[in-house]
Design goal:
The structure holds two protein chains of two kinds. Chain A is an all-alpha fold. Helix content of chain A is 74%, strand content 0%. Chain A is built from 14 helices and no strands. By secondary structure, chain B is mainly α. In chain B, helix 7 runs antiparallel to helix 8. Chain B is flat and about 95 Å long. Classes of the chains: A mainly alpha, B mainly alpha.
Chain lengths: 325, 258
């Protein structure tokens, strides 16, 4: 350190209204807080046990083994991400108010919008961590089952049993085409077990959980109690599953025996307009029965999910911005 | 208060904006899911299924799998009534699993009906009635399965088999196989079965003969013993002049026609 360089006058940094750095700091703190909570581990362990238990279920079931495995595994991921999303988001604001952390944070140059976005980002990071862990466990279970199934195929199909499509396979220049019945069966099994749609559907489950978290955070911005937030958010999410039916009935006004009463129309309209259509995020049912989801569907669902996230965060901010603290 | 009002207004505007988007996405997805075939489940049934999805969330498929295993146990202990109840719950929980509908129908129409027919603890007329009731239960499972999975060729195929083997209604069987033949990914035998069943339907001989001929004209790969036999019998029945009859290899000819 030389004295030659005169210390420069402390420059006052320009305060920006929106800073990703501040949001990242808030998200990091939220993630750390959430991960420290025992309920997170409890639910995660329960989910992992359920996914592992699917192997036992498969051995007891008498048909559709791969479907049962996927049903249980994806079902567990779906339920626990949603539960984690609602329960963890519901207590963020009340806890910060109770601990008075909120006042300390908002006393600094942090806008309420940044605060909400930071909190939601933390919850989403926690959900992503939980989803990755559950997916890893699920893939392990699938791999284990696939190994057993391949052993069975090798036992049932002799090496020299030719595939029915061998003539076509040898005629085609594709050297990866299966030459024996055994190879054909193994290839079929592998494509049924792991495919792009499976991971795409898990990503959509994470997005759905993020939407649930955003809904909960929005409700907690005007709610006065933790319990009210949880109940209201769950109700909104549950009703979200019947949005397509409500929309059809409202739009068509048919199938229920003629013209609908005005109060029923208003109810259907309210459900359709104010609740998120959760059925659009339900791709795992199709995956479990072995359907392949087109890329276009994933793209549309992702765009819709981000639309919901943006709107709910913005509305949450509007509720929060005018709230007396 | 001002914030709340503005917030609700934003939600309202978003709700109106998203309405056509979500309607379009749902329609496109249903069209893709059912390969363009319309779902015929009533609004009440659809609402019930959506309610179950909402209540159980992702766990409903797990619950369905567990109850499916219990149904298997009920089968082993020959509890038909309990099986029917469990199948009803399982299919309500997971209506998209075609094999649930298929197996439920098979257990009712084949296994339970035979058990009812052989049950010597009840009078004969009651046995017959019970047998027919189980056939109808099997039919009901298949029809409900079809309404939830309108693109499933398997369920139409099983329905055709049920009408043919249990109801001895060949025309209904023909219609079911014909529907199966329209579905994607079906196995080709359903095309043949549709024609065979029409050939066995009284009053449809001419139409059946034309379809049998169309099948015959597809080439030698279609000259299966059943087709040749039905074609021959139909020619005799319709009194087709010998010079207009199709060529049938001597080894496949009906004994009366050799």
């Amino acid at each position: 350190m030389s004295d030659a360089a005169a210390p420069s006058a402390p420059s006052s940094p320009v305060h920006r209204m929106f800073s990703l750095g501040r949001i990242a700091a808030l998200a990091g703190n939220t993630l750390r807080d959430l991960i420290r909570q025992k309920v997170f581990y409890f639910m995660l362990v329960f989910a992992l046990i359920l996914i592992g238990a699917s192997l036992v279920l498969v051995s007891l079931s008498f048909q559709g083994e791969i479907q049962t495995l996927k049903d249980v595994g994806l079902g567990a991921i779906s339920v626990f991400t949603m539960l984690l999303a609602v329960l963890s988001s519901a207590m963020l604001l009340p806890k910060d108010i109770e601990d008075r952390t909120l006042y300390t944070i908002l006393a600094k140059p942090v806008t309420r919008f940044e605060y909400l976005l930071g909190k939601l980002s933390g919850v989403i990071a926690m959900l992503a961590t939980a989803t990755v862990l559950m997916t890893a466990c699920f893939c392990g279970v699938l791999l284990l089952w696939q190994g057993r199934a391949i052993d069975n195929i090798e036992m049932n199909y002799p090496v020299d049993m030719k595939a029915e499509s061998v003539a076509a396979a040898t005629a085609s220049p594709d050297s990866t085409a299966p030459q024996t019945r055994r190879e054909l069966e193994i290839q079929k099994l592998e494509s049924e077990t792991f495919n792009g749609s499976l991971f795409g559907a898990i990503a959509i489950l994470l997005l759905r959980a993020a939407v649930c978290a955003a809904v909960t955070l929005m409700v907690s911005c005007f709610a006065t109690s933790w319990l009210f937030t949880v109940v209201a958010a769950f109700m909104m999410i549950l009703i979200g599953h019947i949005v397509p039916i409500a929309r059809d009935a409202w739009q068509a006004q048919a199938g229920m025996g003629g013209e609908l009463a005005i109060h029923i129309k208003l109810l259907l309209m309210g459900i359709t307009v104010f609740c998120p259509d959760m059925q659009l995020f339900n791709l795992v049912d199709d995956i479990a029965v072995g359907k392949i989801i087109p890329m276009e569907v994933f793209m549309q669902t992702t765009a819709l999910g981000f639309g919901y996230l943006a709107i709910y965060v913005f509305v949450g901010y509007l509720f929060f911005a005018w709230r007396e603290l | 208060m001002k914030g709340r009002i503005v917030g609700v207004l934003v939600l309202l505007v978003w709700g109106i904006v998203k309405l056509p988007i979500e309607t379009g996405m749902t329609r496109a997805r249903n069209a893709d899911r059912f390969h363009g075939f319309a779902q015929t489940a009533s609004l009440r049934e659809q609402a019930g299924q959506a309610g179950v999805i909402a209540v159980f969330g992702g766990l409903r498929s797990t619950v369905a799998d567990l109850l499916w295993i219990r149904a298997h146990i009920a089968w082993q202990s020959v509890e038909w009534g309990r099986m029917k109840y469990l199948f009803d719950v399982v299919t309500a929980l997971q209506p998209q699993r075609v094999n649930f509908w298929d197996m439920a129908a098979w257990h009712m129409a084949w296994n339970a009906s035979v058990a009812a027919e052989r049950d010597e603890t009840v009078p004969e007329f009651q046995r017959l009635k019970n047998k027919e009731d189980y056939h109808k239960l099997g039919e009901d499972f298949l029809l409900r399965g079809i309404s939830a999975n309108p693109d499933s060729w398997e369920l139409y195929d099983r329905l055709g088999g049920l009408y043919r083997d249990k109801f001895q209604d060949h025309y209904k069987a023909h219609l079911a196989y014909k529907e199966a033949a329209l579905r994607p990914d079906r196995l080709e035998y359903v095309d043949r079965f549709a024609v065979y069943e029409l050939a066995d339907s009284p009053g449809h001989e001419k139409e059946a003969y034309e379809q049998l001929l169309a099948l015959y004209n597809r080439g030698k790969q279609e000259w299966l013993p059943t087709l040749l036999k039905k074609l021959q019998l139909m020619e005799i029945k319709l009194g087709v002049p010998p010079e207009q009859r199709v060529y049938i290899p001597p080894e496949s000819r009906h004994s009366a026609d050799k």
